[in-house]
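Q: What would this complex look like in 3D?
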Amino acid sequence: QVQLQESGPGLVKPSQTLSLTCTVSGGSISSGYYYWTWIRQPAGKGLEWIGRVYTGGTTNYHPSLKSRVTVSIDTSNNQFSLNLSSVTAADTAVYYCARKSAGLPFDYWGQGTLVTVSS
Amino acid sequence: EIVLTQSPGTLSLSPGERATLSCRASQSVTSPYLAWYQQKPGQAPRLLFYGASSRAAGIADRFSGSGSGTEFTLTISRLEPEDSAVYYCHQYESSPQSFGQGTKLEIK
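A: Here is my prediction, written as structure tokens for the whole assembly.
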């Protein structure tokens, strides 16, 4: 059974970089053809797709965040990561990591981690 | 970007009743790469349907998905108290992927 677990600071200061890691267990992150994805959800609001990294390393980002986002994969540690620079209060949200395969939606999700941007 | 609009915003029904949730897309979602998720407070979304009408593993047959093009529907028959949640549609056909704003289902 694949499991995903987010980790990282719960509090980030404005203008700094938000960094989160998603650790994948129950399977190798480099086997199969999957899109390892970050999604966020502000309190009481809907879901926003942030970006993804393909097993082979190709990345795609939401156009509204593209200038500030980097998603990368670390196959040696079975992890993938999110860096979001120049954060503001608007970036305060629960951040989820999730797995997607071609032609299918997100089948496995992490439990989510709350990141608050505040001084 | 494909914009998904869900209606109604909130639905309040009694156990045993039938719920009909709508998701309208601003452009046609072919294939169709349209999914539905259920999210309960403090939990991650749970996949209910993919391909508009294919039920995910472990999902009760009281749940059904249908639709094509720009109009999609999630139907829940014989509502149970545990169906209380927010339901989201999601298009994964084109980038950036997008979600509807959600329909909150309350069981009286």
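A: To summarize the key features: The radius of gyration of chain A is 13 Å. The mean pLDDT of chain A is 96.
Q: Very helpful, thank you.
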